[in-house]
Amino acid sequence: MYRSLHQFGSRIAPAAPAFATFASDVPVGPPVARLLPGTQPASFCDLVPPPQGGLIYHAYQTHSDLLWPLRTVARNALPSLNRARDIPGEDAALRKLAAACEVFVLAALTHDRPPFGIDAVTVGGETIEVVEESACTTPFATLVHLRKAMADPGPRVLIVAPMSGHFATLLRDTARTMLADHDVYITDWHNARNVPIIAGRFGLDEYTEHVMRFLGVIGPPVHLMAICQPCVAALAATALMAEDDHPATPASLTLMAGPIDCRVSPTEVNKLATDKPIGWFEQHLISTVPLRYPGALRKVYPGFLQLMAFMSMNLDRHLDSFRNLFHDLVNGETDKANATKTFYREYFAVCDLPAEFYLETVRLVFQEYALPQGKLTWRGRRVDPAAIRRTALLTVEGERDDICSLGQTLAAHDLCAGLRGYLKTHYVQAGAGHYGVFSGKRWSGSIYPVVRETIQMTG
Fold it and tell me: Which of 228, 236, 274, 456 lies 20 to 30 Å (CA to CA) from residue 159?
């Protein structure tokens, strides 16, 4: 039997804002369906049907271009408006105008990766400098090394970030916590709209290949940690490397809130992924990158569509957050306003996904359940998790995760039949939602010690 740990501690308020939803397990499509043809009652809108797949990106870009002059004016006016607010005797109208401009500017989407912003970390009571370096680069990803300026940075760990419409910097809190005791590397997936079409395709096979290549670059001994969506690829990569007796086969594999078997207690997100045939996703959600970008003519699942899907799941909370932000700015609640702005600057930085990867993930992981049914292949070769015999396995789930429900990640234990019981550990965090598994107080205070122990146990 594998070790099963359950944390039923006090109800700790999450560090992330209440409106935060990080639905990174699957590129969610169907919530956007109401915006597409055939989903609305007959009305005047039927005379002007919304753009389908190939035209969605162009419609978005046109809308963004039209708003750009207004946002530029608002952004340039802000310094003067903020200075004028401090003049004695100024009235509330000026504060409201400045707040409105700031909210309007914040609401714009960006397509560039924010910085990790981890300049130092505390180790043993001492502040250690952290430098962000590139250890390996391909057209589709960069292996980022968050190098600590110390002789013994700790066990090497590769964190596999999800390719799900946001950048790897959304795992900033995860990486910062891991840096206290480990030498951290992280997959930094590139925005597909910036990848020239000549670079070729990028599907689930290429994703898995990148994980194996990056493990080889880091070199043994190395530990692998996958968060959410990439748990399937991480398990597949470990199985393939174990079967080949590759020297860089991970010493430990940590799978956190990942969709190993979506047949277990399907969530609403899982059901949405199966409501439509794969052809619907390709027809309505795949678009072509406009000619102005380096990845012109590449087929992608646009990051702004993914963001729409995320936000539609908690739309009222997001609207309330922006209303509260406006009032906080007017009333001078600087700390509250800054917390909201920091979150949305990261949340509104979107990243396009290669069409092949998106469609294969939906079909193989969420519709056909290829891995748990023994049908997943890599380059035509069957993936067999039972080939894993020496890699310690830790699975982590959140009690209140409504994106990847209890049992879906645990399923990895049954698939890894070649592992002895003492090498298997399962941990359920009480009160944690999806985001709370890898960010916030529950992550740093309860889950991280279990991850650290698993890594230390295997050297």
Answer: 274
